[in-house]
Specification:
By secondary structure, this protein is α+β, with helices and mostly antiparallel strands. It is about 45% helix and about 20% strand. The chain is elongated. This is Sporulation related protein.
């Protein structure tokens, strides 16, 4: 490491202050213009999302527990039952793995019997639950 002489140190200090004095942060304003059709599209999407009801179908809960175990259970399930959809829902304090979207109870119970062969604590969730 080189040690600077006092005159070089003073020169570098003044040079640093002089250069730093003229530095400014960005102070420009940004104006965003948005097409009116975009806002209409967002409103239509919001209406569609509120009209979609996920509580009118039977579903099957295959797991309730910790996050990592829920992720592993869901990935194993998707490998074994690729035709059925599944998701993880957080319901304090557990993560629940919910699968299927069955319109009728008969269809749900048929799949429940197959899933019970692989997973031990499985039960049917009725619509609206």
């Amino acid at each position: 490491m080189r040690i600077l002489t006092p005159s070089k140190r003073v020169f570098l200090t003044f040079t640093t202050f002089a250069l730093a004095y003229n530095i400014h942060a960005q102070d420009q304003n940004l104006t965003l213009t948005q097409d009116a059709k975009f806002e209409q599209l967002l409103n239509d999407k919001r209406k569609i999302n509120t009209s979609i009801s996920t509580n009118d179908t039977y579903r099957i809960q295959i797991f309730s527990g910790k996050s990592e175990e829920a992720k592993k259970t869901l990935s194993d399930f998707k490998r074994e039952f690729s035709s059925l959809d599944g998701t993880i829902i957080f319901n304090t304090p557990n993560y629940k793995v919910i699968v299927g979207n069955f319109k009728t109870r008969i269809e749900a119970e048929r799949n429940l019997a197959d899933i019970k062969k692989r997973y031990k604590s499985v039960f049917l969730l009725k619509p609206g639950k």
